Amino acid sequence: MAMTLEYGLLLVSLGLIAGIINTLAGGGSNLTLPALMVMGMPADVANATNRVAVWLQCVSGMSGFRHHNKLETQDIVPVLLPNLLGGLCGALAAAWLPASWVKPLLLGTLLTMTLVMLIKPATFGPPEGTPTKRVKDTPMAWLGLLLAGFYGGFVQAGVGFVLLAALCGTLHYDLVRGNALKLACTLAFTSLSLVVFIADDLVRWVPGLILAIGTMLGARVAVRFAISANPKVLKAFLFVMTLIGCIAAYAF
Q1: In the chain, what are the domain boundaries?
Q2: From 6's CA, which of 32, 39, 131, 219 has a CA 20 to 30 Å away?
Q3: Is a pLDDT exceeding 70 seen at residue 161?
């Protein structure tokens, strides 16, 4: 399908919603990936093109969180080490393995995250005043960030839930700071993924950049909301997004 004004406006609109969802929770790609595939892109090309919007959304969101002093910049490098390793492996797997692997992995991951929220809600938001931990002192955090990176490099959709489980559940960041670091992680492994996808000529730049206009605006809106929102509201939003993500993954 050729790019038209109507389709461009649709991409910007869906990008806006996806940017909000991805910044506060995860799963926004469940909206944007089907839209790109409706345009006629194969699943692997849509997956690669979507990363352009995700990358720019992360830049926009991180800038907003940093402006409000909610981005723990000193913790970025320790968190990124296992995440980048996993992201590189995931991107290589996505380029080489059949696209039919994406849906089962996506659905299984989202169902697991939904169950975790029901059984152990503190995983996505420790009690107020809980001290944070360092990655090097927390083996489970290192493993969780490694797996989150692999999943993000392979699928991308819903990776925010996995990252928040590692950042909030094992390192005890609150949801706002966890979301800020989540964007840093997503930016890092998305950068690696893009290199792999660009080398394989899978990225379609025009729709990717049009989609990015919306995701960047959505990230800015989401940061302002996250700063002022009640933590219980953020948790409820996170839970609803996992349920929607499960339905979307099953349906599409």
Answers
A1: 5-251
A2: 219
A3: yes
